């Protein structure tokens, strides 16, 4: 290939350059985070689910349509993936999760980002609102997601309810392995959705989390009061429901959340399991982009804040964190 023919690829790579960082949260916990795409696009943060990491969004972070439309950001929730996994329960208080989100927002200079949470990832929205209320985000996308950890028992399918105790116990490896494999298999309805490589990577993500951390993450308490009281009247929310979800009852979650939010949209995928962003890839992508653009168009009619212009049109992003390609499992410290 002559050098000139490589130019378009070089330009594409430049436009969609990725930055991966270890970001310090307020309590010193190191959070692994990555941004990819053009910072002039709407800012969008993806938050993964239980026992997994932001690795689950790999396909989205390679997708040109997503990258051409959004500034794509993802991070590993504390306790998961490459982020630190403090052992003590105090490190899993609600405010810590909101501070982790804040640290990611600051590191990549995000302005009122949208956020999507898959499954357990949806609980982070409650943490953000409990600490800050309105003004931090532009909208939430629940991807077959929970609103809080306390909802787990009432909206989980039997598979999840029977699996969670086996996943968090510390006495029987056979029981754990069966539960972990069953849990990952339970995220999909169509077996072909996950390649063998992806499947074992997802299963392996459970192994880097100490058992006590797995429990701390489930046992933490949250308060949805501010999310519903302040977000309810004005926050744009999109819920993506998979009717073949084997882990959560998305219909029950929609029934629970619809009365709470005035601006509530639902995308129902009859043929998708729990991993709606993969099993309904194109439909979810169109809905997410439509949702973002409808909110932005409405905002730009009423006001464009000077800080938005500075952030998005003038300032170059200044990244605040330590460069961190995928290479570690994070630290596990702090007594139980
Ligand atoms: C969890 O363990 C119990 C035995 O303690 C077993 O009866 C049950 O089938 C297990 N659940 C799953 C989903 O494997
Ligand atoms: C561990 O769990 C398996 C599967 O339920 C069971 O067959 C086995 O007896 C258990 N082992 C111990 C040591 O309890
Ligand atoms: C989490 O909660 C369960 C059920 O209430 C309890 O059995 C378990 O000991 C708790 N785990 C931790 C680490 O606090
Ligand atoms: C899911 O929740 C809906 C609404 O509450 C209920 O009608 C349905 O029976 C539930 N499905 C399952 C499989 O539990």
TrEMBL record:
Pfam families in the record: Abhydrolase_1
Record-linked InterPro entries: AB_hydrolase_1 (IPR000073), AB_hydrolase_fold (IPR029058), AB_hydrolase_sf (IPR050266)
Cellular-component GO terms for this entry: membrane
Assigned keywords, A-Z: Signal
Signal peptide: 1-20
Domain AB hydrolase-1, chain residue ranges per copy: 42-155
Source organism superkingdom: Eukaryota
Official protein name in the record: AB hydrolase-1 domain-containing protein
Species of the source: Botryobasidium botryosum (strain FD-172 SS1)
Species classification: Eukaryota, Fungi, Dikarya, Basidiomycota, Agaricomycotina
């Amino acid at each position: 290939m002559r050098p000139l023919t490589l130019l378009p690829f070089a330009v594409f790579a430049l436009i969609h350059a990725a930055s991966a960082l270890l970001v310090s949260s307020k309590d010193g916990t190191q959070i692994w985070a990555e941004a990819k795409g053009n910072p002039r696009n709407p800012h969008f943060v993806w938050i993964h689910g239980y026992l997994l990491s932001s690795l689950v969004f790999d396909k989205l972070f390679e997708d040109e349509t997503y990258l051409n439309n959004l500034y794509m950001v993802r991070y590993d929730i504390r306790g998961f993936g490459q982020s630190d996994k403090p052992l003590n329960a105090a490190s899993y208080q609600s405010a810590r999760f909101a501070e982790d989100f804040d640290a990611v927002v600051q590191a990549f200079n995000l302005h009122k980002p949208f956020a999507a949470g898959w499954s357990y990832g949806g609980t982070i929205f409650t943490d953000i609102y409990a600490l800050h209320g309105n003004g931090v985000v532009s909208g939430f996308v629940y991807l077959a997601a929970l609103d809080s950890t306390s909802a787990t028992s009432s909206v989980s399918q039997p598979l999840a309810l029977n699996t969670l105790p086996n996943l968090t116990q510390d006495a029987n490896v056979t029981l754990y392995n069966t539960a972990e494999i069953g849990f990952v298999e339970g995220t999909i309805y169509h077996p072909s959705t996950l390649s063998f490589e992806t499947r074992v990577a997802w299963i392996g993500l459970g192994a880097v989390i100490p058992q006590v951390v797995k429990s701390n993450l489930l046992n933490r308490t949250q308060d949805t009061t501010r999310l519903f009281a302040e977000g309810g009247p004005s926050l744009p929310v999109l819920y993506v429901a998979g009717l073949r979800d084997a882990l959560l009852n998305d219909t029950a979650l929609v029934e629970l959340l619809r009365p709470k939010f005035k601006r509530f949209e639902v995308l129902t995928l009859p043929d998708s399991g729990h991993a709606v962003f993969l099993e309904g890839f194109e439909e979810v992508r169109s809905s997410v982009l439509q949702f973002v653009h409808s909110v932005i168009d409405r905002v730009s009619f009423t006001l464009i804040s000077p800080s938005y212009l500075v952030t998005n049109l003038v300032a170059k992003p200044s990244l605040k964190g330590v460069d961190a390609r995928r290479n570690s499992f994070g630290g596990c410290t702090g007594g139980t």
